[in-house]
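Q: How would the structure tokens look for this protein?
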Amino acid sequence: MRGKPLLAAVVGAALTVLLGVAGTGAALADVFFGDTFDDGDASGWTKTGGSWSVVTDGSPAYRQASTGASARTQAGELTWTDYTVRARVKPIAFATTARSAGITARSTSLSSYYALVLTGGGAAQLQRVSNGTVTVLGTAAVGVSSGTWYTLALRVTGSTLAGSVDGVQVVGATDPTFSSGRIGLVTSYASASFDDVAVETPGPGPDPTGTTPPTTPPDPGNCRVAGAPAGFASVNAWGQNGTTGGTGGATVAVDTAVELLAAIARPEPLTICVSGTITLPAGMYDVASDKSIVGVGATAGISGGGFNIGLPVSAATTPPADAVHNVIIQNLSFRNAADDSINVQMFSHHVWLDHNDLAQGYDGLIDVKRGSSYVTVSWNHTHHHTKNMLLGHDDGNAAQDTGRLMVSYHHNWFDRTPQRNPRVRFGEPVHVYSNYYVYTTDTGVACQNNAGCVVEGNYFEDVEEPVTNTYAGPAGRCVARNNVFAGESGAAVCSGTVREPSAYYAYTLDDPNAVKAIVTAGAGVGRG
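A: Here is the predicted structure in token form.
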């Protein structure tokens, strides 16, 4: 992230942030520190031992490369008491099966802390380290493979400690030794990469996993697409008249993974009614054209896996006749995706993602890339996640993306999502309007690599860089107008000209001063 760890006023009040943010419920927590290392440095981290540097490991990450010593780095404040520290950790090499890599909490010094580590022997260990002496407080076999990313979370509340791996609590203990301290990253005679470090107020329970109430019986009679898309998903283009999803086809009810995966793969128009939380095996699952995937009520969701809307990746530079198109995903919660929660790729078009609640995925929550267009992302609530939304995945993908990636983002609640809100490459015009951003500790809209963004009528509250076309890499072009910059938000950094969205569709802006109230009352599930 840029500017490290947060806006100064937010850091000062971090541990008094209220849990009951409107629309989230008390079970969710607030991120008050984070680092993604996307700015290429690790300022603010104090280290000892090993060989630390920021490298590219899929995305920028903080790597400790030596297997010849114990190595530790820490950040934050000694006064931090109750919190959850979370990070992605990829062990690269273990000197022996007893060696380890992981995260620390309540570090009173570089040699005294609690730690959750992965060992070369395939275990997760909860440790107390006092002046360098390690005491194992809990251990669990989880299976650990070098070269694989894992999401670790260590929660410390009072004397209660809980450690999670990939969203599942595996170890716990009670220990009163350390009552406050910094967070950190640690390796013991192992090399590892670290990314997406976040610290959040703990919330009740071992880890804010977004547990959904018990499954209710499927009821297709209560399943319908609410409303119609605005923005680019409404445009007639590429042989498709707007976005209608499964209209005209059958309606089916699903409440198991087997039923859901069979339904999204069917070739004909279909409305798929999802009841309760469906846990998918880790992976991305292809959605065929002409589908409406709709949650029944306010408790429907997907956990563990994600949806891929698009053909397999290729080097094609023109949209194929069989590109996936005409897909609606509405009123679903997404949690703990092993990759992206929703990925739109390979010239897919006419996709409407509306009134969903997305959090705690592994990679992106909503990514649109590889020449896709005519997409609307509306009325979604995204939270508890760092790398939120990409539009265009790589600076070198101009051949597929130039002249495409036309996407509208409106009435979304970007709730403490530090970056990629969205991060844009090549797309033009990209229309970002009437959204509410709160406590964004890096960037709101980052418009890069010759993209053209119109950012208007949004409400930015405590957003470090609300709009920028100079974030990282080649510059883009952006127009920012009629936005509200509240609290300790920075200013828009924009230049250049952009094609107007009004050349493609008609739209009406809300009063930007009313956008916060409108969006928090209407975004997310159960509100369509």
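The chain has two domains: 8-200, 227-522.

Confidence is low (pLDDT under 50) at residues 1-29, 203-219.

Upvote if useful.
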